[in-house]
Amino acid sequence: MKRVCDTQKYIRVAEVCVAATLTETHTMKSSERWSKATSILKEFEEQCATPIGKLRHVADAMTVEMHAGLASEGGSKLKMLNSHVDHLPTGIEHGLFYALDLGGTNFRVLRVQLGGRDGRVVKQEFTEVSIPPELMTSTSSELFDFIAKELARFIATEGQGFFLPPGCQRDLGFTFSFSVNQLSIPSGTLIRWTKGFSIYDAVDKDVVVELTESLDRQGIDMRVAALVNDTIGTLAGGKYFNNNVAAAVILGTGTNAAYVERAHAIPKSGEMVINTEWGNFRSSHLPKIISGMYLGDIVRRVLCKMAEETGIFGDIVPPKLKTRFILKTPEIKLKDIFGISDISFETRRVVVELCNIVATRAARLSATGILGILKKMGKDTVKEGEKQRTVVAVDGGLFEHYTEFRSCLKSTLNELLGDEVAHTVVIEHANDGSGIDAALFAASQSLYSEV
């Protein structure tokens, strides 16, 4: 089984101990205590084992749940939400489109000029704005009025290289990264806030209506063409640049997947994009828990157990080691986070090995989830005489920055598929650092994109 250890990027295990002088002050007081720590690590490794046979069982279980989720609402561990999206960008879209990405204490606005199949992305510009803290707990109208005013300022800077067809209205793609019950492509009601927001009068309201009313108050002639889930946006952006993209996966702080479902699989519907909400999936064979939100805390829990039972960090357990989610996945730094400095080389080696185990498990299970989707789409086999190429667009910091995680995911998927099918499946990074996906999605839903 391939080991995962990337000391330069996402986990930065090389910074586990950044003490000015590494001493042996807290080495094991006895061979028994060291043996106990090794035993805990070995037991944890066995619990995290992902043999190929078990992974195939997980993929099969996921495919069964996908079928059940499409057949009836609430009939599956997977929500299998109908996104109402029945067509994605094709590359022929042209015109001027805007995007608004609201997902935290900052929001981004972007404009892009599309030139059709030949011109593609002709020009794009964006700006990022910080939200005043008081607006995160104020009222819905105050928050969206602030956003609309900033959007108006951005529109006012629209210069050479950007133009609308005569008589057309500007279209906007709105990425809203909070829990929403999406009613149609351009509408959805807020279920709950996260990330420090607590604007109670916005809950259960259509966020597109709230934004549109603020745009009207600012005198902005703009239509919100699409409310965009980040996973659907990744799929849309991937499809725009590569027509073989059939699924999208997010592997970052959170995780999710979306794919294009065949017409016959959805009653009374044509081809449709399905939002799986696979973060909710649980298998009796293996629980998933694969996103960046959890990996650091899994490491912390095992370290805490070691500290309590073996004294690996000295006679006193570092108090911060007991704080849930204090250890973020991007930076496992014992000195900076826990105040642990003088530890032995052997202890540092245990921490590295622990990170390897946790990350390898997550990468292999991520590959298994992708296999489940490929099986549901009928892309896990090669049909005789048919040229087949399936691209899965993947985004998120865990996939983008953790090089060996990405490598392990790909090699595991190849192992699961076998050589013949593996040659027809491509895992492609779909980086949307500019926020262009929402604009491309708005273009695909536009009233004038084919004018």
TrEMBL record:
<dbReference type="GO" id="GO:0004340">
    <property type="term" value="F:glucokinase activity"/>
</dbReference>
<dbReference type="GO" id="GO:0006096">
    <property type="term" value="P:glycolytic process"/>
</dbReference>
<protein>
    <recommendedName>
        <fullName>Phosphotransferase</fullName>
        <ecNumber>2.7.1.-</ecNumber>
    </recommendedName>
</protein>
<dbReference type="GO" id="GO:0005536">
    <property type="term" value="F:D-glucose binding"/>
</dbReference>
<comment type="similarity">
    <text>Belongs to the hexokinase family.</text>
</comment>
<dbReference type="GO" id="GO:0006006">
    <property type="term" value="P:glucose metabolic process"/>
</dbReference>
<keyword id="KW-0067">ATP-binding</keyword>
<dbReference type="InterPro" id="IPR043129">
    <property type="entry name" value="ATPase_NBD"/>
</dbReference>
<dbReference type="InterPro" id="IPR022673">
    <property type="entry name" value="Hexokinase_C"/>
</dbReference>
<keyword id="KW-0547">Nucleotide-binding</keyword>
<dbReference type="GO" id="GO:0008865">
    <property type="term" value="F:fructokinase activity"/>
</dbReference>
<comment type="pathway">
    <text>Carbohydrate metabolism; hexose metabolism.</text>
</comment>
<dbReference type="GO" id="GO:0005739">
    <property type="term" value="C:mitochondrion"/>
</dbReference>
<dbReference type="GO" id="GO:0005524">
    <property type="term" value="F:ATP binding"/>
</dbReference>
<comment type="pathway">
    <text>Carbohydrate degradation; glycolysis; D-glyceraldehyde 3-phosphate and glycerone phosphate from D-glucose: step 1/4.</text>
</comment>
<feature type="domain" description="Hexokinase C-terminal">
    <location>
        <begin position="247"/>
        <end position="285"/>
    </location>
</feature>
<dbReference type="InterPro" id="IPR001312">
    <property type="entry name" value="Hexokinase"/>
</dbReference>
<keyword id="KW-0418">Kinase</keyword>
<keyword id="KW-0324">Glycolysis</keyword>
<dbReference type="GO" id="GO:0005829">
    <property type="term" value="C:cytosol"/>
</dbReference>
<dbReference type="InterPro" id="IPR022672">
    <property type="entry name" value="Hexokinase_N"/>
</dbReference>
<dbReference type="Pfam" id="PF03727">
    <property type="entry name" value="Hexokinase_2"/>
</dbReference>
<feature type="domain" description="Hexokinase N-terminal">
    <location>
        <begin position="41"/>
        <end position="240"/>
    </location>
</feature>
<dbReference type="GO" id="GO:0001678">
    <property type="term" value="P:intracellular glucose homeostasis"/>
</dbReference>
<keyword id="KW-0808">Transferase</keyword>
<dbReference type="Pfam" id="PF00349">
    <property type="entry name" value="Hexokinase_1"/>
</dbReference>
<feature type="domain" description="Hexokinase C-terminal">
    <location>
        <begin position="288"/>
        <end position="443"/>
    </location>
</feature>
